[in-house]
Amino acid sequence: MISVVARVPLAARAVPYLPLGLIAALGASLAYVVRLPCRTGGWNDQVTTYTNFCYTDIYPLFFDRGLSTQNPYFAQVPFDKQVEYPVVLGEVMQVISWVVRWVEDDVVGQAVKFYDLTVVLLGACLVIGVLLMAAVAGPTRRWDALWYAISPAVVLAAYINWDLVAGALSMGMLLAWARQRQVLAGVLLGLAIATKFYPLMFAGALFLLTVRTAKWRPFLVTMGSAAGAWLVVNLPFMLLAWEGWRRFYVFSAERGVDWGSPWLFFQTKGWHILGDTDVSTLGMVSLALMCAGIAVLAVAAPRRPRLAQLCFLALAAFMMTNKVWSPQFVLWLVPFAVLARPNWKPLALWQLAELWYFAAIWLYLLAQPPLDRDDLGIGDDTYFTAVWGRIITIAIMMAFVVRDILRPEKDVVRQADLDDQTGGVFAGAPDRFTLATVLR
């Protein structure tokens, strides 16, 4: 007897995602509205920009990086004026600048259109990222993607920079891995790393689960595809525009401590060791220690951790030890935090901390040189409450995820009769290496 399984039409399968897509589009629209005070002329006054909480990198970089006249990486500008982003973002900026130069003659009009078209792209990336996240979460937890679609912190940070492009690629990578399409997962991971550097942390999460399950072939195929995709998009610029291409890597290595980083607190307060040691060394050592702890956790847990849990822990560790922690970095963490532990209470607490930081950074900058508007801004101590608010609330979420890994019965995702909705080849795989087997 032959059984026939009817395939559900694509349109019917898409119906559950339609409300999420519409809500994400609403979130993207609200993010545009938030920046209307700047969009209508406020960009030309730094005080107005900060008091209206509508700052974005998109508009000023059109002028400051020579996009109004030249191509990124090939521009004949001083080294410190080269585009300081990996090549995928540089080429996104390039294509949009070509379009606006073609349709608009006035340079100010070009900059406004550059912002508008970039926002259209970023809004589309938000919608795509939300839909991909919903697909990753699966039918039992699809609505968790609302946190990414319309949470206040996402709306406020959406158009500060180009981070939503990397977010869509990262969610695509996660879905491809979950569907066991390792080549596609690797290509998307390589492109994500060539867009923003933080997705590199996800390779470590895949490696740890590979060590535990011995699923080496899928891992190596994915990493090979990622390396190949990264090389394909980077190699032309490495060969033809070396100085412009290396600007991102030199800038990342030489950049000092900056806004949002806990190291700024230690330097400002003059702490011994934490405040006077080279911040690059401090960051690398502290990140290495946290990653070592995550590695031990991954092989010591009584049950294999879920991929999203390890991705969240690795990414949070990267952010907490970084030299800079910009307001838009919240966009990196939201989808992974929700997939790791979709419990609304710690998520809501963290979002409140992010909202406070979003307000605090602009108020703090008002009181800093060259503006020195103490009547409008806030001082060091008030600002650092916001810095530590983010750190503490994320640490709380990390602690809950660690608890869920050590006590899998507490994991709300696995209580829905799931092993790992993002696991791909790891889902249901038996352990081949754990700390217990070594200590036996």
From TrEMBL:
It is found in: Cell membrane. Keywords: Cell membrane, Glycosyltransferase, Membrane, Transferase, Transmembrane, Transmembrane helix. GO terms for molecular function: glycosyltransferase activity. Its main location: membrane. The chain crosses the membrane at residues 14-34, 119-139, 183-207, 219-242, 279-301, 307-326, 347-367, 387-406. It is a multi-pass membrane protein. Belongs to the glycosyltransferase 87 family. This is Mannosyltransferase (PIG-M). It comes from Nonomuraea coxensis DSM 45129. The lineage of its organism: Bacteria, Bacillati, Actinomycetota, Actinomycetes, Streptosporangiales.
